[in-house]
Write a structure and sequence with these properties.
alpha+beta; Diaminopimelate Epimerase, Chain A, domain 1
Length: 265
């Protein structure tokens, strides 16, 4: 069954930065096994699969290893393709029916804003091997249903991390599959910086992770006493995320750039 899959760099307007996502527009629903196999062939951190449903689109996300319940950069990429390829009028809101409920996206000039659920991390004891796997001490540790959130001392420490992914695999699984690491930014253009590691999902380090900012937004709101932020994810590619907290929602802003189009069987 040939399907067109676009590759889109999300949370950037630079071909060499951001997080590449696959976007597959389906004419009708297909099985999860086919989607998983296609995502594995794409070898991207996530590939999004969507088809028209009701007044919007049914949307699912797959890493090369598993389906995930929430993905920011592939949702941003999906909305970008819908507008760029004329499936949606430029002024129309994109509606996505997902395993995390109804998600929406709207255009704001060259930026796209996503409306996502907040995923605050409750304080918890650090898993036995967490600090050893990161190679540094944690100032604080929290967890939600998908990730651990770790605060470290400085941006220098954060950027120098070289995780032991085998050791990290001793406390991660397909349910709680990622570790978000964060600290205040040295750069006055950004409020905070982060990195994200998810070896259990087949993603040693994710370039830019929208869903992680559903936890980072509430975390830094409580620390800094404000609701809006500009964040930088300090992977080797890097990307910029605008974050705004409103009640139990987090609004994520980013740019996107279409890079390629392929046809997969």
């Amino acid at each position: 069954m040939p399907q067109t899959i676009y590759t889109v760099n999300a949370f950037t307007d630079d071909p060499a930065s951001g997080n590449p996502a696959g976007v597959c527009l389906l004419e009708h629903p297909v099985g999860g096994l086919w989607m998983q196999a296609a995502a594995q062939k794409m070898k991207l951190s996530e590939t999004a699969f969507l088809h028209a449903e009701q007044s919007g689109y049914r949307l699912r996300w797959f890493t090369p290893r598993m389906e995930v319940k929430l993905c920011g950069h592939a949702t941003l990429a999906s909305a970008h393709i819908l507008w760029e390829k004329g499936f949606l009028d430029q002024g129309s809101q994109a509606l996505f029916y997902t395993k995390s409920g109804l998600l929406t996206a709207r255009k704001e000039g060259d930026w796209i804003e996503l409306d996502f659920p907040a995923k605050p991390a409750a304080p918890c004891a650090a898993p036995e091997s967490l600090e050893s796997s990161l190679g540094t001490a944690a100032l604080s540790v929290g967890q939600n249903d998908a990730h651990y959130l770790v605060e470290v001392e400085s941006e220098e420490v954060l950027r120098s991390l070289r995780p032991n992914f085998k050791l990290m695999g001793t406390f991660l699984d397909k349910k709680r599959h990622g570790v978000i690491v964060t600290c205040l930014s040295n750069n006055p253009a950004f409020d905070f910086v982060s990195r994200f590691f998810a070896p259990a999902a087949g993603i040693p380090e994710d370039p830019v992770t929208g869903s992680a900012h559903c936890s980072l937004g509430p975390f830094w709101r409580d620390r800094l006493g404000k609701k809006s932020f500009t964040a930088f994810q300090a992977s080797s590619r890097g990307g910029v995320v605008r974050v705004r907290c409103e009640g139990d929602r987090v609004f994520l802003g980013g740019q996107a750039l279409t890079m390629s189009k392929v046809v997969r069987e």
